[in-house]
Amino acid sequence: MDIMISESTEEEQEYIDDTLTEFNLKQVAATQEQLWVPLSYCIKDNGAIIAGINAEMYCWNIVFVDVLYVDGAYRKKGLGSLLLARVEAEAKSKGVHLVHLDTFDFQARDFYKKHGYEVFGVLDDCPKGHVRYYMKKILV
């Protein structure tokens, strides 16, 4: 066997993702027709993006919120709540039952708790001296 580790190209990364997805779907069948459905929105002020959310509904009618950001000058004005509500409403209309995300201790754990999310996992020292929280919300 002639084994070599090399940095993956974008095409190789895609192959690895696709191959794992194929394996996963053999274990648990997809419950949605389109495997990856983006649920991403932004808010603009005079054409400039001031807030945005990047989320995706995947394979089994589950949503992962990857990023929720509000520019510092626009925080505490309800924009994050509007974006999160928009994703949750769209997700619900598509039959989603679970939304999950992660956040750091210096980000928005309390914001998500206020919106009904609960911590289901904690990763200490990520980054060093900080905590990463894994959170979920069951949509009813």
Task: Explain what you see.
The protein is built from three helices and seven strands. It has a single domain (29-138), classed as Gcn5-related N-acetyltransferase (GNAT) (Aminopeptidase, 3-Layer(aba) Sandwich), CATH 3.40.630.30. The model has no long low-confidence stretch (mean pLDDT 97). The longest helix is centred in the first third of the chain and has 18 residues, at 10-27. It is of the alpha+beta class and 140 residues long. Strands 1, 2, 3, 4, 5, 6 and 7 form a seven-stranded mixed sheet that branches. The chain is globular and about 60 Å long.
- How many helices does DSSP assign? 3
Mean pLDDT: 97
| Terminal residue distance | 52 Å
Question: Could you estimate the helical fraction of the residues in percent?
Answer: 25-40%
What about the largest sheet?
A: 7 strands, mixed
- Kindly report the name of the CATH homologous superfamily: Gcn5-related N-acetyltransferase (GNAT)
Contiguous uncertain segments of 5+ residues: none
- CATH hierarchy: architecture: 3-Layer(aba) Sandwich
Total strands: the figure is: 7
